[in-house]
């Protein structure tokens, strides 16, 4: 099995909105997720999170804390994965799609109500993400 490792950045602003990206490869249906991507070279998970967040949103962030780990396997695609989620804070930049892979189609700040209605890349993340929004913890 192929082993994949990556990181995700979770950013909630002062209005209790979560920053999300709409993504799709050319042959996929567009779905929403938090900015994320795979480790490159000798990156740490934190460095990957910061790089991917900027690549996908144009915003420079700093990692505040680790939120959770997610791991598992997909037998259909013969892949094992490890994904670490980090709380991030925006330090500079302007919200802009600048994804080098050209998979990002849109960026937006989403409310709890919107999040629960979106077509998600990872539906299992909805409970975790809405829980953060319900806590009302600003992490931007």
From TrEMBL:
It holds the Pfam family NUDIX. The keyword DNA damage does not apply. Residues 3-134 form the Nudix hydrolase domain. Keywords: Hydrolase. PROSITE patterns: NUDIX (PS51462), NUDIX_BOX (PS00893). Its EC number is 3.6.-.-. It comes from the Bacteria. Its cofactor is Mg(2+). GO terms for molecular function: hydrolase activity. InterPro entries: Nudix_hydrolase (IPR020476), NUDIX_hydrolase-like_dom_sf (IPR015797), NUDIX_hydrolase_CS (IPR020084), NUDIX_hydrolase_dom (IPR000086). Belongs to the Nudix hydrolase family. This is NUDIX hydrolase. The lineage of its organism: Bacteria, Bacillati, Bacillota, Bacilli, Bacillales.
């Amino acid at each position: 099995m192929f082993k994949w490792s990556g990181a995700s950045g979770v950013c909630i602003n002062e209005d209790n909105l979560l920053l999300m990206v709409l993504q799709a490869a050319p042959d996929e249906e567009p779905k929403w997720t938090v900015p994320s991507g795979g480790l490159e070279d000798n990156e740490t998970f934190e460095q990957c999170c910061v790089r991917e967040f900027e690549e996908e949103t144009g915003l420079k962030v700093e990692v505040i804390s680790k939120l959770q780990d997610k791991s598992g396997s997909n037998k259909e695609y013969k892949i094992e994965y490890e994904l670490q989620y980090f709380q991030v804070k925006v330090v500079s930049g302007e919200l802009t799609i600048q994804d080098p892979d050209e998979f990002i189609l849109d960026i937006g700040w989403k409310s709890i109500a919107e999040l629960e209605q979106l077509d998600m890349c990872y539906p299992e993340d909805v409970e975790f993400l809405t829980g953060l929004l319900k806590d009302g913890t600003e992490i931007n």
